[in-house]
Amino acid sequence: MSQSLLERQDQAGVATLTLSRPDAYNSLSLELMQALHAELDSIADDINVRCVVIRGSGKGFCAGHDLKQMLGEGEEEYYRCTFDTCSRLMQRVVSLPVPVIAQVHGVATAAGCQLVASADMAVAADNARFATPGVNIGLFCSTPMVALSRAVQPKHAMELLLTGDLINAQRAFDIGLINQLVPEAELETAVDTLAAKIASKSRKTLQIGKQAFYRQRELPLSEAYEFCSEVMVGNMLIDDAQEGIDAFINKRKPEWTHR
Q1: Cβ neighbours, 10 Å, residue 104
Q2: What architecture does CATH give domain 6-199?
Q3: What pTM was estimated for this model as a whole?
Q4: What is the percent of the chain where pLDDT is above 70?
C-alpha cells in the first residue's frame, strides 16, 4: 500500500481505508485503484477484520476516474487497462468476505458514485452530492452503470446516467443509493456506530450471509430458496452458529471464534 495514495487504520475489527488524493478529489488513478485492490485482498485474509469503511480525504469522497491521466496516455491499451482494473476493483468490493461501508462527503461522481453503489452500505453527509456525469463530456458512464443499475431501480439509474445531473443526499436516500444521511459533523460518528455494530458479529457468519445475498438475487425465486436453504444448513454446522444459539438460549453474550 502506498501511503501517498491510500491510508489504512484498524480498530476493534474495523479497517478504515482513506483515499488520499485530496488535491484531485481522490480521483481514481490507475495506481490508486491498484493500491485499493491490493489492500482489499489483504483484508480478505485478515480474520481480525469484520467490517471495512472506505472514505475520502479532503473536500470530497471521489470524483471518479483521473481524466487528466487518461487523456495524457491516449492509447487504447491504457484505456482497456484502466477500465478493466476498475471493474475488478468493484467486483472485489462485492466479493470481499466482510461488509463494506462507503462514508461519503462532498461529491461522489462517475466511478466514485460507482464505488458507493458497489459498497454493501453507504452513509452520507446531508450535503453530499452524487452523479454519473459522463454523458456531459461524451463518455457515457457504462461501467458505473453496472453497479448503479443493481443498487437502484432502473428508471432512477437511467435518469442519472442520461442527464448527468447531480443529485443531493436526500434524493440519493430516496432512491436507495445510500442507507443514511446525517449532518456532516455527525458523519464519522454515524459510520463508526454502524461499523462497530457489524464488527461485533461473527466474521464467518457475515461472510456466509454476504456471499449468499449476492448469489441468490441473481437466481429465480425457487432456485434462490433452494440455494439459501442449503446455505442455512451449512451455516448451522459452523462453530459460531452453535455458540450463538447456545448463548441466546442461556441469555449470555456469545464468544465468537469466527469459525
Answers
A1: 32
A2: Alpha-Beta Complex (3.90)
A3: 0.95
A4: 99
